[in-house]
Amino acid sequence: MRSIVFLVALLGFFNNVIAKPLEGTKQFSDDFFNESDLKGQPELQELIKQRPNPWEMRQAYGVKRQLKTFPCPDAADIAPCICYTDERDLLHLDCSLVPTEKYLETIFQQNFPVKHFQSFDLFDNSHITTLGDIFNGLTFVEVFVERCVNLREISQYWLADSRDTLVYLSIANTSLTSDAFPFISMDSYTRLEALFVPTNDFTFIPPIHSATIQGVAFESGMISVIEPDTFSNLPNLTYIGLSQNNLTSLAASTFVFSGVDHVLIYIYLYSNQLQHLEPGVFSVQGHPQNVTMRLHLENNKLRTVDEEVFRPIMPYLEFVQLFDNPLECGCDIVWLLLNPTYLDKVDPRAACSDGTLLTDLDLADYESFCSIPASH
Ligand SMILES: *[C@@H]1O[C@H](CO)[C@@H](O)[C@H](O)[C@H]1NC(C)=O
Ligand SMILES: *[C@@H]1O[C@H](CO)[C@@H](O)[C@H](O)[C@H]1NC(C)=O
Ligand SMILES: *[C@@H]1O[C@H](CO)[C@@H](O)[C@H](O)[C@H]1NC(C)=O
Ligand SMILES: *[C@@H]1O[C@H](CO)[C@@H](O)[C@H](O)[C@H]1NC(C)=O
Ligand SMILES: *[C@@H]1O[C@H](CO)[C@@H](O)[C@H](O)[C@H]1NC(C)=O
Asked: Which SMART domains does the entry mention (predicted)?
């Protein structure tokens, strides 16, 4: 280490702040978080909702976690990073307290007897501004970089050594812009299933390529455009989180699902500014078996439930959430109102702009005054 004095000061900090939870006697329930949930067809939506703050999650593991001399490196060599094993003998590395990227890089020059880790954590760190090619041969299954509010750039190669191990990448609440995030390297990870990158400074998402990604999350940002090719190179995608962004319209072929059997598709678009959905924006192709779609469009600016947009996906929809949209409820929705099977799939809170629930509309009036379109 370059500065002994600095290291000693840091170790004091480490002992005071971090050692305490390790010695805690508090019991955490076992159903806290189970990483095996990430395997197979993941219920990613449940996961993102139920997953506690990962920092707390690690602390919870910390009750049972063990600081071992092997397989961990010498604790002093890597301080303020903490290496530990959990009750399943998986190895974790938490570097939340590092003061600079350079310091982090120096830590990875130390002797690591075992180079494969389950997770790398970097939480609540306001010092780190860039993450370059630092890991020096260490590999990870899960990487969490969260609430690092001054992080502005990540190198395309920073996780190159984890190309065959990385399954779950979560980078949230940073100052990363779309140009500073390595979207371009996603196709180099041969096992990546989840790209969870909410609450960053993204304004657009470039095309992402990956044969393996099943879930992407971009909630709570300033994204105003999604191009039809953004997700078109993700054949295994079944979970898309885009809620709480600034989307105003979506073009045809933005969300196309083909060749995926036996899947539950989640599309989260609530709390945007959506006014216009082009026909074909959601489509399921190739008559796959047993595909169910849950579509969240609540709290947008939609004035109609366009037959051309929604009728083609009705066979697949489990439900569509449409409440908090200023629906005009003219003859444009008669196709929906007069088909009980379809109407059943619309969440009952859906209402017209005057507050009348769709389910309370007088269907006889619609039958008399709107000419019913020929059945398809
Ligand atoms: C995690 O889930 C798997 C499969 O559902 C189960 O077999 C295992 O016991 C769980 N582990 C914990 C620690 O709850
Ligand atoms: C982002 O991080 C900052 C600083 O830690 C925190 O104050 C803020 O609540 C976080 N926002 C979210 C959405 O997590
Ligand atoms: C696609 O996802 C399924 C689970 O839904 C998985 O079994 C399959 O291996 C994945 N395909 C690729 C190429 O990763
Ligand atoms: C949302 O998008 C509009 C243009 O479509 C832009 O004028 C506005 O500044 C954006 N708002 C945010 C918070 O990015
Ligand atoms: C349908 O797919 C779901 C996964 O989304 C699966 O759990 C279920 O067993 C499948 N049902 C049939 C009849 O294949």
From this structure: LRR_TYP (SM00369)
